Amino acid sequence: MFEKPRIIKLPRIGSSKLGYISIIENEKNIPFKIKRIFYTYYTPQSVIRGKHAHRKSKQLLIALTGKIIVTTETPHGKPLKHILSTPNKGLYVPPYNWITMKYSHTAIQAVLTSTFYDEKEYVRDYKEFKKIKSK
User: Fold this and answer.
1) pTM, rounded to two decimals
2) Could you tell me the residue ranges of all domains in the chain?
3) Among the listed residues 6, 12, 1, the one whose alpha carbon sits nearest the alpha carbon of residue 88
4) One CATH from 3.30.530.20, 3.50.50.60, 2.60.120.10, 1.20.1250.20 for 6-130
5) Which stretch of DSSP H or E encloses residue 103?
């Protein structure tokens, strides 16, 4: 059976008077060791990004600013919609989840991954993705 994505609440320290920090620690409050970090920004609101799945990579998606609507789907599941709009909550996306993302123009998204970039690791054809059997 394929693992479904879930929201992970990150520790938030501080106050409205001083501001806040949130902490991400390898394999402590996220379920993988971080190998790569990248971010997206200034994405036009009309653009839908993603449109792929990963064979091995685990990811944590965080909206540092703005709002991101993320839709995920396992090969045999129904689409699930997730809204990211606070920097102390991230969406954990396990392998074999088709993902699409729609951004507010002010959104900055940080993505932490468990693997280095490898184009062979991606499933970019939705029909191929839907044919994937249980691991």
Assistant:
1) 0.93
2) 6-130
3) 12
4) 2.60.120.10
5) strand 98-103
C-alpha to C-alpha distances, 50 to 12, 38, 86, 122, nearest whole angstrom: 28, 14, 20, 11
The CA–CA distances, whole Å, from 1 to 94, 112, 123, 133 equal 12, 24, 18, 9
pLDDT above 90 covers what percent of the chain? 90
CA–CA separation, 58 vs 114, rounded Å?
5
- Whole-number Å distance between alpha carbons of 70 and 101: 5
Catalytic: which of 52, 54, 82, 105? 52
77-104 pLDDT per residue, tens:
899 999 999 999 999 999 999 999 999 9
**105 included as an active-site residue:** no
